[in-house]
Amino acid sequence: MISSITATALLVILTFKMISIYFGKEELKKQLSVEYRKKLILNNTGYVTDYLRRLKSFQENIKNEDFPKKNKFLRELNKEIKGIEAELESGDEERVDRCHKEHIDRFIKGQEEVRAIALKIEEYTKNAISNNDTEVVMENIDLLVDSESYDTFFNLLEELFEWDEKYACKTLMHISKKNRAWLIKDKMSFFKQYALQKLISESGKLDAIQNLLLIYDSTNLGMSKLLPGIEIITNQCREIKKQMLDLERELTNAEDFRVCMKEQREKRKNLKDQEAKLCKDLLDILKHATPKDLRAYYIPIRESYLAYDEGKYETVNKYLTVILTNFEQDCFMIKSETGITDIDVPLEYTFSYVTDEEMFIIDQLIEKDKTNMVIPEATKNKLSGLDRVVVTNDLRSGVNVDSLEIYRSTMDLPKGE
Known about the structure:
Blueprint: H1 7-10, H2 25-43, H3 48-62, H4 70-88, H5 93-130, H6 134-146, H7 150-163, H8 165-177, H9 185-201, H10 206-216, H11 227-253, H12 257-287, H13 291-294, H14 301-309, H15 313-337, E1 348-351, H16 356-372, H17 377-384, E2 389-392, H18 402-411
Antiparallel strand pairs: 1-2
Helix pairs in contact: 2-3, 2-5, 2-6, 3-4, 5-6, 5-7, 7-8, 7-9, 8-10, 9-10, 11-12, 14-15, 14-16, 15-18
């Protein structure tokens, strides 16, 4: 039985197959993840005070997790925390000094252990990729991501991308959502450029490209900045609808329709006035929104322009169809998230999906193509309209499926993907 996970024991992530005879695979995986995360905390904290602070935060985080021998692990963790606190708060200079020195010794030893573990994880994961052992690859990558061992993850990323581009980009998006991407900003930036070029040139999967473009530019907020204010308005709109529905039920069940309608007249007028005000409040929020406040996807128009200058016209059209396909999906999301569909009063919202700089590049690209005419006219027309997009609260309007079909034909995707 495993009483404590040592550096050697952690290496069982390479298969789990022999140990899973005695333990459930998922249970062991959770246990390994918790142990490894604790080792990484020690590995990243050279000062005992920082180590103590991060241990306390770690203790709170894992209280709600479920893993084998949890109670024992928490007892030992609490004992370690209390022991360090007792030494640091003792008021005895020698004890405090000894506590710092003992931590440095553990820190150096811990770094050696983590380095050895990381090298083994890399080795076994690369072997699993070579052998196309999907289960082992994903278990190892999950462990690295869960424990935020990003240096090791990025050492494997190129091989992981070559093995399964869709899975690699999905994992990158997951890391980005954990709000720790700033820790590996340079590596992330370099790889995203490499991956986008490779996906476009090799007709990569739509899912992979979209996952990548969702994290390509962190300044694209995808409505997140606007949602708190919009949510207040939409909640009030729903309450008005509920009150209007109550009035309709009351009218339906009334013995005298005319008398009931007369009694309701003032209430109905007040509700209509409230809804009109909410409509104005909503438009006030939206009219100050910038393109980057609204959209979620990066727009690779600069990449398209550079490809055009290099004469890579097939690549140009792939970039452009990606832009238009993502625009259609993003536009549908914008329409849903702006809250205009929660208002019954006829409403129209006009916005720019692109920045002034991006629109300038689009205009230049279209001007260049007047001679070569390698970009379809339908594509150019849609690109020209990205600076003036109109959505209404008519649920049936505003979604164009043509772009997806263009994308399928350009990227060689099968129907239904």
